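Fold this sequence, please.
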Amino acid sequence: MIVEINKEATTKGVEEFSPDAVIVAVGSTPYVPDIPGAIGKNVVNCREVLSGQKKVGGKVVMAGGGYVGCETCFFLVHKGIDVTLVFRSFEPAPDVKHWMFRKYYQDKLKGYGVKVMPQIKSGKITPTGINLTDKEAWKQPILFWLLEPHQTGI
């Protein structure tokens, strides 16, 4: 197998190389939810945390229970961070298609001691926390979770 790096992929070059497949991995753009305060100083995205670009405190609320949110929880727990995972769906990792892998994620969250809060809607984010509502009272706040942003490094 030959892999060439730091080389521009032109049409001619790819045709001459004649690969079985060409995979273009151009990266992604982080999703910013439509939540008041989502662009605050105490809010970071998974990419910033996983890359080490941003540090978080000793307690974190992870809003979003897809596989990226779950993987970020695992990363943070390994760093000694107290993580609460909140998401709107019935169970975590609904985007993991195969039931066996989805169960693996769910079991791992439990084993790591991540506090899992399903069917929760994230509300306004403030400099000191986030308002959350449950499925029974989407408009009535049930929890105000205090964050400790940037108090301890990862």
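The domain at 33-146 is CATH 3.50.50.60 (FAD/NAD(P)-binding domain). Residues 138-154 have pLDDT under 50 and may be disordered.
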